[in-house]
Fold:
Amino acid sequence: MVKIFNRLLDFLYPPICPVCGDLVESHGGLCASCWSRFNWISNPKCFKCGYPFPAHLDLGLQPMCPHCASGECDLDFIRSACVYDDVSKNIMLPFKHASQLKYKNLMSRAMINALRDLDLSVDIVMPVPLAWKRLFKRGYNQACVLARPIAKHFNAALDVNSVSRKYRPDMGHKTSKQRRENVRGVFKVINKDKIAGKKILLVDDVMTSGATFYELNRILRNAGASAVYAVSFCRVVHAI
Structure:
């Protein structure tokens, strides 16, 4: 019955590429042309944080970027689907700021795909919280929209209530150090019983310096989380 209903929906509303509008095989999927324009992150990449390395380098099975090799990344793993550039930002920014939720399926699917090289067991999927002031202004938490299908994929609980966030101005073009200082102390665990002993996957739309993930990891570890992972749709990449 479900298959018949889905076929009827596909007949009435044919699946189209959310970027260009061409017909595709399934709702939320990209056509081949649009898919090829994205700078998808694949191997070789940092085994821990997923930072992409030049394609011609052979760095072994579990290479690490200088940042992770020096012990600066406290999360267990971080992954991102693609590089933040002129193509990905034309998806991410309208999705984040202009209610263009038609991109949610392709973004969440790409994020799930980015985690495929990790054999993750996840108890909780946690979208990065928004402060109430920003949530009221925007009307939705874009990270939460992405987190729902990811939680379903991992058969994990979606947790939007265990951590609160204070309002602070946007970080804009701040340096990595300034971003860490700006986000320090903005999050608070308000339900430690839900966190203790749990393996948690953090979800956000874009990773710039990692400061938000690092600060969330710090307070979740202090609350007793046994493991903290993170995934974003895109990430800013600079030359190492």
